[in-house]
């Protein structure tokens, strides 16, 4: 496999997972940007554990997921049922604090970054296996009672509560799960790149993943799966002079999709139409 | 003690900027029901517009100020239909969409500024605007206050007082608040919803443009990332105070300014900003609906 293709596929897998990490809490209308901080913390932990303590990739991945989940779970006690804007600002604040801590911590390379993270054989295969397993879990969630409860909470929190949905526990569960995925993304990224820099974990990841989520569609898991590789690949095939305006391109796409198709490209109705065409389900 | 007093005075100047930003943000939230997360990014955009015109006109302050204020008003009015389109249905999810739309606008502005103006390098405002060359405006021992800080504080107090007067003591202010409270009821009693909504965008634009000039005077420079950082602080202040709570925003905005100045006075380095963020984070986690209560 050529290096550019490997690089494209590697980062595409990270963006698919990151967009799913945003998608899950957004099922209850939470834009949980803290997953970017989870990604940075777990990525640095995984990188440090591999370079200094000689941990294998699997152990680093598991630890990264646990750290991400634990941090998100602890924070979710405060914002599990908070309004969206509070969840957003907590995410931004965590990113800022994490970035400042990394930049000022010489042990993990500070502003210079962390180098020498070992290469892992078949890492791309592991990444896509992880995407597959995560996708299966999300699919099962979406088609479960919990998934329907999340949809009810998204539309009308009071109605969901009156139906007996514990909106706080549901929010906490989804934020914790998203934190684990964010943590895994950090470890995968660290081992793909073999180095880490604090400047990567900034607000441009939020802009990119948010555009992927809203362009693909936030009502089904298929939207992010479709939009992430396309949007990540788009600047790679454009001329460099245009591709350098990536954030403006993403911003314009985000605004246009919000104005013209607020639920995104792949909606539940769209999936239903395809299922009917493929005769997977009968027309009700 | 002198350091403490000096930092409190500096903090009040910085806090008055936060108060202006939070008030503009809250005004849009109350009247137009939008979470304009990138309102501070628009303010930084106006600072850049003022800088460009100052450069083109040989540092003509009048034209620079006019460019800063008019660009913010124009930007707000031009983008208003987008927000109104999304806000056709009023509800929590639609408010969230306005926040995402605003973030999209912020991404475009920030990337535009970092690509197209001054090759992405920070810009510096001329001395005849900032008054840096004239030295401190007030000086008692260690306590000193620059002309910019004095101007930011006094103009900030005047603007916020004027805005509160407009909102709570005038007919137009009652119209703003009535639309925020119950848009259908306001329509029923004959209030022009569209016109009043546009007036709120224009008023917020004026407030944003004026804040841009005050920031140019107080800080003396700007960078493309400044808007994002201010955006987080403004939303945090607004949440801590209680979203849409103007009086709460005044108190928390000034408190944040003083807190930051004190931390910078006693704890130098890049950690100082993070400490303010940690305190804000704790406040939001403990009271996610605000100290003074939401006014939505």
Based on the structure, what is the oligomeric state of the protein chains? heterodimer
Poorly predicted runs of chain B: none
Protein chains sharing the most extensive interface: A-B, 45 and 44 residues
Strand content of chain B: under 5%
Enumerate how many helices of chain B there are, as a single number: 12
- Specify the structural class of chain B: mainly alpha
Instruction: Name the beta content range of chain A.
Output: under 5%
CATH class assignment of chain B: Mainly Alpha
Largest sheet of chain B: 2 strands, antiparallel
Strand order of the largest sheet of chain A: 1-2
CATH-level-2 architecture of chain B: Orthogonal Bundle
- Give the fraction of residues assigned to helices of chain A: over 70%
Total separate domains of chain A: 2
**Overall body shape of chain A:** globular
Count of distinct strands of chain A: 2
Task: Summarize the helix and strand pattern of chain B as letters.
Answer: HHHHEHEEHHHHEHHH
Strand and helix order of chain A:
HHHHEHHHHEHHHHH
The secondary structure category of chain A is mainly alpha
How many beta strands in the DSSP annotation of chain B?
A: 4
Nearest-integer average pLDDT of chain B: 84
Widest sheet: strand ordering of chain B: 1-4
């Amino acid at each position: 496999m050529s290096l550019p293709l490997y690089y494209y596929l590697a980062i595409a897998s990270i963006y698919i997972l990151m967009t799913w990490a945003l998608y899950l809490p957004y099922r209850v209308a939470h834009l949980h940007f803290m997953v970017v901080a989870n990604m940075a913390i777990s990525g640095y932990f995984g990188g440090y554990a591999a370079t200094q303590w000689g941990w294998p990739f699997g152990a680093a991945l598991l630890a990264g997921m646990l750290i991400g989940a634990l941090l998100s779970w602890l924070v979710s006690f405060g914002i599990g049922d908070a309004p969206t804007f509070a969840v957003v600002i907590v995410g931004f604040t965590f990113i800022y604090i994490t970035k400042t801590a990394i930049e000022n911590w010489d042990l993990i390379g500070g502003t210079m970054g962390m180098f020498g993270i070992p290469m892992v054989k078949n890492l791309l295969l592991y990444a896509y296996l992880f995407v597959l397993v995560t996708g299966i879990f999300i699919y099962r969630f979406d088609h479960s009672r919990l998934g329907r409860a999340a949809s009810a909470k998204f539309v009308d929190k009071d109605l969901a509560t009156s139906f007996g949905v514990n909106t706080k526990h549901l929010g906490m569960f989804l934020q914790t799960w998203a934190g684990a995925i964010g943590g895994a993304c950090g470890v995968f990224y660290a081992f793909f790149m073999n180095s880490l820099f604090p400047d990567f974990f900034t607000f441009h990841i939020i802009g990119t993943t948010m555009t992927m989520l809203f362009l693909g569609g936030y009502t089904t898991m298929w939207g992010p799966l479709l939009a992430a590789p396309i949007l990540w690949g788009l600047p790679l095939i454009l001329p460099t002079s245009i591709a350098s305006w990536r954030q403006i391109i993403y911003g314009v796409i985000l605004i246009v999709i919000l104005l013209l198709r607020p639920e995104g490209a792949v909606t539940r109705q769209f999936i239903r139409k395809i299922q009917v065409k493929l005769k997977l389900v009968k027309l009700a | 003690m002198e350091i403490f007093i000096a930092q409190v005075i500096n903090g009040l100047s910085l806090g008055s900027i936060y108060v202006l930003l939070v008030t503009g943000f809250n005004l849009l939230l109350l009247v137009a029901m939008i979470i304009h997360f990138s309102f501070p990014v628009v303010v930084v955009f106006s600072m850049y517009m003022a800088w460009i015109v100052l450069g083109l006109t040989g540092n003509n302050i009048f034209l620079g100020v006019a460019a800063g204020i008019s660009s913010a008003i124009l930007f707000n009015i031009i983008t208003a239909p987008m927000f109104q389109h999304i806000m056709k249905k009023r509800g929590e999810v639609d408010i969230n969409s306005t926040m995402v739309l605003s973030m999209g606008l912020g991404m475009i502005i920030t990337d535009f500024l970092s690509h197209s103006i001054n090759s992405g390098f920070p810009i510096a405002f001329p001395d005849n605007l900032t008054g840096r060359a004239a030295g401190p405006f007030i000086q008692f021992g260690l306590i000193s206050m620059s002309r910019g800080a004095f101007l930011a504080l006094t103009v900030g107090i005047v603007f916020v007082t004027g805005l509160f007067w407009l909102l709570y003591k005038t007919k137009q202010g009652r119209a703003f608040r009535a639309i925020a409270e119950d848009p259908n009821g306001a329509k029923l009693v004959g209030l022009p919803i569209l016109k009043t909504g546009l007036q709120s965008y224009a008023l917020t634009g004026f407030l944003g443009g004026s804040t841009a000039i005050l920031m140019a005077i107080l800080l003396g420079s700007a960078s493309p990332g400044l808007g994002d950082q201010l955006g987080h602080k403004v939303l945090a202040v607004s949440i801590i105070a209680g979203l849409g709570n103007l009086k709460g925003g005044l108190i928390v905005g000034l408190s944040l300014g003083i807190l930051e100045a004190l931390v910078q006075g006693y704890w130098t380095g890049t950690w100082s900003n993070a400490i303010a963020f940690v305190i804000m984070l704790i406040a939001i986690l403990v009271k996610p609906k605000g100290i003074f209560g939401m006014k939505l």
